[in-house]
Amino acid sequence: MKQRKIILSEKEIPEKWYNIVADMPNKPLPPLHPATKEPIGPDALAPLFPMELIKQEVTPDKWVEIPDEVRNIYSIWRPTPLYRAYGLEKALDTPAKIYYKYEGTSPSGSHKPNTSVPQAYYNKQEGIKRITTETGAGQWGSALAFACNHFDIQCEVYMVKLSYEHKPYRKIMMNTWGAKVFPSPSNATEIGRKILAKNPDTTGSLGIAISEAVGEAAANADTKYALGSVLNHVKLHQTIIGQEAVAQMAKAGDMPDIVIAPFGGGSNFAGLAFPFLRLNFEEGRNIRCIASEPTSCPKLTRGVFRYDYGDSVGMTPLLPMYTLGHNFVPAPIHAGGLRYHGAGVIVSQLLKDKLIEAVAHDNIEVFEAGVTFARAEGIIPAPEANHGIATAIAEAKKCKEEGVSKTILFNLCGHGNFDMKAYEDYFAGNIVKHELTKEEINASLAQLDTPEIAI
Ligand SMILES: *Cc1c(COP(=O)(O)O)cnc(C)c1O
Predict the structure, then answer these.
(1) Quick one: average pLDDT of 21-26?
(2) Boundary-marking domain end, from 198, 228, 258
(3) Ligand 1 touching residue 413 (CB < 6 A)
(4) Which of 47, 147, 195, 211 is the most exposed, having the fewest neighbouring CB atoms within 10 Å of its CB?
């Protein structure tokens, strides 16, 4: 029997997270105060996040210790398996070797508990009673609900209205772990009421939901906010994925030429790719790391690199990022987790420095890829994950055309068992190919009055 699954023991759960900033040739530019536009220190984040996470946000240290209690909870589903995709290789008739790291084995079904658990842990350490957040596809809300429940913290989730309507079972999942869930924009906050008054039929966006959750945390001392993507500490926590994958590829006697992950704000991409980029930095390897985004929200491939707000009303610090403009509201695609206007600071700097690459796929292509994968490998992927699969398939086809064998590794960052509505729409022919025009992108960028960055 050929070895399909490469597994590690619980003892091999990494003991440290990897901070790529320590190895970056150009460090990320500082965040700026939204009003004064002056660089801000870590203290400015204190109303929203516990001190330990703020420290992690700015730490120059290359390694950060994972608390024992966090590793202990990780062991519920970690280490996650790494698969050789024999079925997909055969279906594509490619000389490429394809592997995938599967993060769908977590209780909530994606990579997100890798960061929700340490975030809830540090909040608990600092006496916090309530955590607010936003969720796009429902993945982050579920992950945070799971983690807060473990530490007996009240969890309140603002869920993008489109997903709230598409994914009622994600909401019930959060309720099961004890969380309160609001459709965003909601009547529960002032910001939500304002947006609803202007545009009662809006399907919502991650940017709007973030504004609601941040507003609640800023206004209450016993309440903090938690973010499931974009920020440095989130990416830091996710590096547990890639560290395991490096060990698993070594166990398989192989090493990827290409590492691929879908891209929303950058956390699962960072999680898988950064530990391989470390090998590029330390050993002079040349592993290509590719981020896959939707053509309907193409900040990496068609956005600009400049300061922008993390939310849609301009409350957060200004961050140096690839962005489509904070007012950008993407088409209502099923990959809710990828409907974010910007990209994380570290990933943006890496892309600007050409240390990573990005590609975009349209809606039809990604569902074709997802169905091909499900029929070849069995697991039904989350719609977000289908973007990474589309890139992996494109690269494997290139190998076939060129008659070369490369080793491809991608992140299957979540299962799609709650996403049957998306697959139903695809099979019914209701998924439309959506490509933004130059004019649409320019119209959004023209609204930006945030500082530009000299290149
Ligand atoms: C949240 C999510 C994403 C997008 O967020 P990243 O921070 O870019 O990883 C992608 N896939 C799944 C399954 C998600 O839950």
Answers:
(1) 98
(2) 228
(3) yes
(4) 47
Q: For position 322, which CATH number holds?
A: 3.40.50.1100
- Three-state DSSP at 449 gives coil
Per 3-state DSSP, what percentage of the chain is helix, strand, and coil (rounded to 5)? Answer: 45, 20, 40
Domain membership flag for residue 27: no
Residue span of the structural domain in which 56 resides: 43-66+112-228
Does 29 reside within a domain? Answer: no
What does the pLDDT read at residue 315?
A: 79
The atom number, within ligand 1, closest to the CA of 104 reads: 13
Same domain, 62 and 77: no
Closest by CA position to 356, among listed 445, 271, 269, 239: 269
Q: Lowest mean pLDDT: which of 197-201, 206-210, 254-258? A: 206-210
Number of domain units in the chain: 2
pLDDT, tens digit, 9 for 90 and up, residues 297-316: 999 999 999 999 988 778 78
Instruction: Dump pLDDT digits (tens) for 57-115.
Output: 999 999 999 999 999 999 999 999 999 999 999 999 999 999 999 999 999 999 999 99
Residue 254 has a pLDDT of: 97
Which residue from 101, 106, 112, 159 has its CB within 8 A of the most atoms of ligand 1, so it is best to mutate?
A: 112
pLDDT exceeds 90 at position 332: no
Residue finishing a domain among 170, 200, 228: 228
Please tell me whether residues 172 and 248 are part of one structural domain.
no
d(CA 439, CA 303): 13
Residue 336 pLDDT more than 80?
A: no
Q: Tell me which H or E stretch contains 183.
A: strand 180-184
**The pLDDT value given to residue 435:** 82
**Is there an atom of ligand 1 within 6 Å of 106 CB?**
no
Ligand 1 center from residue 340 Cα (angstroms): 10
Looking at every residue in the chain, the average pLDDT score rounds to 95
Same structural domain for residues 61 and 183?
Answer: yes
Cβ contacts of residue 454 below 8 Å, gap of 6+?
A: none
According to the model, what pLDDT value does residue 453 have?
Answer: 82
Q: Quick check: 333 pLDDT over 90?
A: no
Q: Are residues 239 and 222 in the same domain?
A: no
Q: Which residues of 238-248 are buried (b: 16+ CB within 10 A; e: fewer)?
A: bbbbbbbbbbb
d(Cα 229, Cα 265) in Å, to the nearest integer? 5
Q: Does ligand 1 come within 6 angstroms of the Cβ of 325?
A: no
